[in-house]
Amino acid sequence: MTTTITHTIVRGDEAEQVVDGPTSTITLLADREHTNGTTSINRAYLAAGSPGAPAHRHDHATETIFVIAGSLDVLIDDEVHTLAAGDLAFIAAGTTHAFAPTAGREADMLAIYTPGQERFPYYRMLEQLHRGEITLADLQATSDRFDNRYVDSAAWRASRA
After folding, report:
1. Is the pLDDT confidence value at 2 over 80?
2. Which of 1, 3, 39, 153 has the fewest CB atoms within 10 Å, measured from its CB?
3. How much is the pLDDT for 5?
4. Alpha carbon distances (Å) from 5 to 8, 21, 33, 93
């Protein structure tokens, strides 16, 4: 028998945080198991100089990014947009995208995935990668499981140079 979840409350001070680099943390808020598979949500804090997320795509999930504070550069296809606090970017499944704080700035953002997918183990792997416990090849081997495929983007590389 399947139990339907009618609500989920996550207290910010009790949410799990992972450190995926020296300049960023990800707060794990809700994964598919908490939302009947409808949504996955995390909050990322990216200090000035953080590399953010490299160019990638999700073949099955739409990603919505909401900037809580700061300034965030977001690649969508081959165009880089600068988002400020209160701005939102909707990125359809299959679209190449990336994000990082604007040069000299920090960014605090929400990432919302629909439909929900298993993401928390992926973020924990990012922390393991940062600690040197796994390799990039180990992480890339999970592309199908986590619907996260790294791609090359000349536009993103040029914007970061």
Report:
1. no
2. 1
3. 84
4. 7, 33, 9, 25
What pLDDT digit, counting tens, does each position of 113-150 carry? 999 889 999 999 999 999 999 999 999 999 999 999 99
Residue that has been written with the tokens 């028998």 in this structure:
1
Cis peptide before 101 (omega within 30 of 0): no
What residue type is 127 in one-letter code?
A: E
* Rounded alpha-carbon distances, angstroms, from residue 56 to 18, 92, 107: 20, 12, 19
CATH code, residues 15-145: 2.60.120.10
User: In the chain, where are the structural domains located?
Assistant: 15-145
User: Residue 50 corresponds to which tokens in the numbers above?
Assistant: 């953080």
Q: What confidence score (pLDDT) does residue 1 get? A: 58
Cβ partners under 8 Å of residue 57, min gap 6: 93, 94, 95, 96, 97, 149, 151
CB atoms within 10 A of CB 75: 27
